[in-house]
């Protein structure tokens, strides 16, 4: 299982997915109900939709790691996780528009959210290569 490079990419994506639950994506001032600026961090638990999508990507990646015998299903789940993680980044970006001032702006840990689809794309590419290799070996038999 771990001798395949896509398992490493999937594991890195899972670690990044877990860390995005803990670290902030954006920080800045936000207006509250009484029009007072308060400094806040944008984290995954700040919005229920972002939280659900982040947990869904994390769980899907963890499940995908153990589907190494079923490459077609592994590839499908990885591709759907890529789409969901890109949607998650879009929702993060949309949430940043609710901030009045971004004193600190995008945090360095926002790169974790961007790294997830990158690692998933690398994993999908290697899963596809494995599938092609197995099909070519079956033709030789």
Could you explain the architecture of this structure?
It is built from four helices and three strands. The chain is of the alpha+beta class. The chain has a single domain (5-140), classed as Butyryl-CoA Dehydrogenase, subunit A, domain 3 (Up-down Bundle). Strands 2-1-3 form a three-stranded antiparallel beta sheet. Strand 1 (26-31) and strand 2 (37-42) form a beta hairpin. Helix 1 packs antiparallel against helix 4 and helix 3 (71-96) runs antiparallel to helix 4. The longest helix is centred in the C-terminal third of the chain and has 31 residues, at 110-140. The two termini are 24 Å apart.
Topology pattern, helix = H, strand = E: HEEHHEH
Q: Report, as a whole number of angstroms, the end-to-end distance.
A: 24 Å
User: What ranges have pLDDT less than 50 throughout 5 or more consecutive residues?
Assistant: none
- Biggest sheet layout: 3 strands, antiparallel
Side-by-side strand order of the widest sheet: 2-1-3
Global Rg: 18 Å
Instruction: Assign a percent range to the helix content.
Output: 55-70%
**How large is the share of residues in beta strands?**
5-15%
Task: Based on the coordinates given, report the CATH architecture.
Answer: Up-down Bundle
> What spatial form do the alpha-carbon principal axes imply?
elongated
Number of domains: 1
Overall mean confidence score, pLDDT: 86
Structural class: alpha+beta
Main CATH class: Mainly Alpha
Q: What is the CATH topology assignment?
A: Butyryl-CoA Dehydrogenase, subunit A, domain 3
- Tell me how many strands there are: 3
Number of helices: 4
